[in-house]
Every structure is written in structure tokens, then in C-alpha cells.
Write a structure and sequence with these properties.
Structural class: alpha/beta
Shape: elongated
Strand content: 15-25%
Strand order of the largest sheet: 3-2-1-5-4
Number of helices: 8
Oligomer: single chain
């Protein structure tokens, strides 16, 4: 999620600052954000991240400033059914952020390492606050356990009028972007949170890029251009002995309409987002189930 990158950048700008960390630990019914959403607050009320659609942040920031001063954690509950008509309720835990935790979070973020963090927030917890936990460790009662994954890394191979919009949309989502001229610049290892878009507008370079990318088994490899050109490219790729899987999306992008560079970029980024987030790409108004996946019930202490 983007806010982890924002939190890391804020911490690295001023690592000596004393911060409060506000975490959405429980959500009941409808809510704009889900448990695990976080916001970092400075002592002068600057904040990064979000916990709602903007309706609660002012109150949380005010409480966070008190927590920064006192060092005493606080628990907040908001019944959005009565206040905003949102048919839900939120529980937020506010703590003074641990400097070692923020430093470790920055290390994991820059190294693109997966990690598990736990936020103990209730009366039953033995370790209140947010920390990293090992894979073997069992979750304690009244503890939110969150899996952190790297941000999507987008490889853009080739240039064109849509490149600026691709980079802009990706950066808005908190993705990291790597711009390459051709496949010879591919270097290092690419993890399972890497997507690539091939758009050199040169047949030979596109073919070379596909030959280099397909064996990497990335979740998403997009190819610009019409179907006839794609089929011709895939024929040459297969003849070279490289297998083609379902992770190749060509022509790249969802059918959103429009042919401006910005429209094309939006269609591609939307498709990549749906692949990594498991979206259906169907209109939300057609869903017959809640927008968000239900939160797994927490274990009941003593059972």
C-alpha cells in the first residue's frame, strides 16, 4: 500500500522527530479503509497516510499529538452509522511510534522484503504497540497481524507519448517505476511484485524484450499493439523456444475507451492493478456482495 512508502519517506526526512502511529485495527460493517491502514503524525500535526475517506483524520491527528507528548497509547472508536451514515464502525489504536520499528520498516521497504507486523491494541494483548513478528510466532489476542508486501515495480520498456502518463499514474499508486530503452538493460532479479509493459514500437526490440521477460514468470507482461502484430511476435518468440503463458496481456489494457496517450496509460495501469489486487474489473454496481472482502474473524481468547 502506498502509505507505507509515504511513512518511510516521512521518517527518513526527519528520523529524529517523535511520531505517533495511528492504525485502523478493527472495522465493522462498511468502511472506506480496511484494518491495517496507517497514518503517521508529527508533533506539529503533519500527517501521511489515511484511515478513512477524510472524515476522521482531524480527530485522530488531535489525539495523536497528545500521544506524542505523553507517550501513552490511546484507543478510539467511531460509529460512522450515526455520524456519517456509512453503516460501519472503526476502532483505531494510536501509539508513539518506535524509532527502531520505523528504521526496520524502511529497511524492509527499500530491500523489497516481505514482512509480518503485529499491532497489539486491546486489554488482552501482552505486547501493546506495533512491531515486527516472525513467521513462527502465533498471534496473541487483541492483535492485528498484517502482511507487508513490496510495492508494485513497473518496468516500462520503450518510450512514447504515453510514457509520462504511465509513470504518473504508477507513482500516484505508490509503485516504483523503471524506464528502460530495450531488453538489454534488464538487470538483476525481479520479484513476484514486478510488472512489465513492452512498448518500443520496434518489432525486433519488442521480440527481444518478450524473449527476455517471459522466462522471468512475472505476474503481468503487457504488450502494446494490435492482435495481428502480437500473433506475429508470439510466433517468433515460440520459434526461439520461449514458452508463452497466461501472464502475457496483449493488447495491453482494459477496454475503457479513448485513444489519447493518457487514456491508454490509464487502461494499462487499471489492468495491472486488477491483476495484482485480484480485481474482477466489473462495475461495482453489478456486485451482489460487499465491495471489500470480509475481514477474517479474530480468535476468541480461551477457545
Amino acid at each position: 500500500m502506498r502509505e507505507i512508502g509515504d511513512i518511510v519517506r516521512q521518517y527518513e526526512q526527519d528520523p529524529r522527530e517523535t511520531y505517533a502511529l495511528a492504525t485502523l485495527v478493527r472495522a465493522h460493517g462498511s468502511s472506506y479503509r480496511r484494518p491495517g491502514a496507517r497514518m503517521l503524525v508529527t508533533k506539529d500535526a503533519r500527517a501521511v497516510g489515511s484511515l478513512s475517506g477524510g472524515c476522521l483524520e482531524e480527530e485522530v491527528i488531535a489525539k495523536a499529538r497528545q500521544v506524542v507528548q505523553s507517550g501513552t497509547p490511546a484507543w478510539m472508536e467511531f460509529d460512522t452509522r450515526r455520524r456519517f451514515g456509512c453503516h460501519g464502525a472503526l476502532e483505531i489504536f494510536v501509539e508513539r511510534a518506535s524509532a527502531p520499528f520505523l528504521a526496520q520498516l524502511a529497511d524492509h521497504y527499500h530491500a523489497r522484503r516481505r514482512a509480518t507486523i503485529a499491532t497489539g491494541f486491546g486489554r488482552e494483548t501482552t505486547e501493546p504497540g506495533t512491531r515486527f513478528m516472525s513467521d513462527e510466532e502465533a498471534a496473541a489476542p487483541d492483535t492485528l497481524v498484517q502482511q507487508l508486501v513490496p510495492p508494485v515495480q513497473l518496468l516500462i520498456i520503450g518510450d512514447g507519448p504515453d510514457s509520462g502518463a504511465l509513470q504518473g499514474f504508477a507513482q500516484t499508486l505508490g509503485w516504483s517505476v523503471v524506464q528502460l530503452e530495450n531488453a538489454t538493460q534488464l538487470a538483476g532479479e525481479y520479484d513476484s511484485w514486478t510488472a512489465a509493459i513492452v512498448k518500443t514500437h520496434n518489432y525486433g526490440r519488442d521480440c527481444a524484450a518478450l524473449r527476455a521477460l517471459l522466462p522471468l514468470d512475472l505476474p503481468y507482461i503487457g504488450l502494446l499493439g494490435p492482435r495481428r502484430r502480437r500473433d506475429q511476435l508470439l510466433g517468433d518468440v515460440l520459434d526461439s523456444g520461449v514458452a508463452v503463458g497466461t501472464n502475457l496481456f496483449g493488447p495491453a489494457g482494459l477496454d475503457l475507451g479513448g485513444d489519447a496517450p493518457e487514456s491508454i496509460a490509464l487502461a494499462i495501469v487499471a489492468e495491472i492493478q486488477s491483476v495484482f489486487a485480484g480485481g474482477s474489473t466489473r462495475p461495482l454496481r453489478e456486485r451482489r456482495v460487499p465491495i471489500h472482502s470480509p475481514v477474517a474473524p479474530e480468535p476468541v481468547p480461551g477457545r
